[in-house]
Amino acid sequence: MKNTIEGIIEFIECNLRSDINMQLLSRNAHYSPTHLSRLFARHTGMTISEYIIRRRLSIAAVLLKGTSKSVNFVAHSVGYNSAKYFSSSFKDEFGVTPREYRNGNVFVSLTNKRIVKGGYKMKYNTVNSFCESMFAKVTNVDELYNTVACATNVNILHVHDADVLAVIIIESEHEIRISQVEVNLISKGVHISTIFTMNPNEYQVSDFLINEEYLIAISDRDGKVHRAKFRVVDIPIVDVSVESLCSFDTERNDEDINGENKVTEDDIICEILDLTNDIEVDRFVSSNDNLILVKHFGSVYHFIRKSSKGALLKLDSIYLDASSKASHVYTFFKSNTPKGRVEMLNTEQGVEIIINDKPMLLCKVIRQNYLKHRVEIEFENGARGTGDWSL
After folding, report:
1. CB hemisphere CA count around 116 (13 angstroms)
2. Average pLDDT for residues 245-263, to the nearest whole number?
3. pLDDT tier, 26 (very low <50, low <70, confident <90, very high otherwise)
4. Alpha-carbon distance 122 to 205, whole Å?
5. For 74-215, where are the E strands, in sequence order?
6. What is the DSSP letter of 122?
7. CA distance linking residue 218 with residue 205, whole number of Å
8. Main-chain dihedrals φ then ψ at residue 67, nearest 5 degrees
9. Contact at 8 Å (CB) between 144 and 164?
């Protein structure tokens, strides 16, 4: 498969100045245009048309800076019959016209020839080894895809600026774990979350990136194959700010919140997802002193949850879309407060945190358009989800 993509890249590189169409490429590769497009994008991170355009314009940028040839000559040299269309495409790609680029001190990021490594295959043994490889070797998108091209257990799903979203399969003696890995190549920030787990005595991954519809095949002991694909869901993060309504003395408490006073987000989410309408949700919230419904629209809910032990108070923001089963939970407040009875009240100003009948804190939603990526796995039979679950 990689040899096929490598052959397509070589063909494109040799014919950048000619008319290249999908029918010609698919005929040479012996794949349908749709299937070839899917394979090419998975191995290179861009569509075939994007690759051709970016390579043509990158070569043009080098010619503009390195020679005194006219813009019209450069346009024809990289396969454009119209200098006007070439200038428009160049500006769309780089943000400046060819003349502005030639005459100004403008930096543009060029697309190099993709390298698809087909000579050998390798696996990352841990998520950390994958991340370390990214930090050590990768400085641009080309190097990103070239670095993982020979890896059989990594699939790059999304790249935006320095942020990379990948799926990685790590096999051990005790489990097979499919994880979502979010890496920022500048800050070296890493966020890892589990998508799916399997018992290696019961299942094995028989193929990864198998065709244009399904990306992974899992075989059980009876030889039955379970095909699945990954879906990237964008979940709004509901940021909450906290204001003090009065000054208060806090009591030191070294105990953390655990045990019977803490309900995990998975428990809360699973219980809510079992509910079938707004009335049941209202009843559930009314019977749970640690949870308050801030707002909902249709099947989308925003809750605030409190957990307390001694003087330690923790507040969580829970976003939940019951129809898509997408969710996000994060702690926005954790601090020592006066000991006593903690209550929550939803007001027009926000959610008041009341301790011993006295308003202490006010929680307000910060209106920000910020999305978090959540990767789900979806099987042929319709079963889908994310987190620490298995077949």
Report:
1. 18
2. 52
3. confident
4. 15
5. 154-160, 163-171, 176-184, 190-198, 203-208
6. B
7. 5
8. -135, 170
9. yes
